[in-house]
Hints:
Chain A is an alpha+beta fold.
Amino acid sequence: MTLSATLSQVELFEGLEPDELEKIVAICEERTIAAGQVVAQQGDAGDELFVILEGLVEVVHEETPEDPAPRTVVNLGHGQVFGEMALVDFGPRSATVRVISDNASLQVIPREAFIEVCESHHHLGYVIMRNMAADLSFKLRHQHLIGR
Amino acid sequence: MSTIYKVSYVVQGGDHPGAILNEDKKPELGQRVTLGSNVFEVVEIVDLMPARGDFSFLHVTVKSIPS
């Protein structure tokens, strides 16, 4: 399967036309991460968005003065994205993300190229930002259900 | 394209954080699912929000299977 076809099965890119999807493919970089490796560290600056094509990662809130025990808040698998918060709000990473499967196959999108393609192609930018908001909403609903 | 099921798995009891992932097939009651190194049984399936495009959005409650 081509990368374009694979990315079309990721909600973040749902609704993009084939030529728009190719623009995303052009700014993606493949990265394979081994089990136990940290992909993003809470508190660090972050300028990349990650799409999980294979594998499972855990999202961990590290200890803070207010919350002294680190805790895993969710596991993310095939088709999910992470790193989007720091990508759009320019803040530090809000959590640590670590690979917990044998390895993980990721597509990485750098902020500068991502913003450039969104600003240059408004329909593409609108669709991705709408989908990103929907994904954040889904994650929030997941957290609400855990606390049920 | 066939439907892609974006699933929020929530684990009953315990402190497992659950998982979010895409599935090719809709989970079924009683089905066993593997999340990382743990195996669970599906006990509840609910539409979390309306489908959009090729995507359906599900909330699935699972319980641990005693080893």
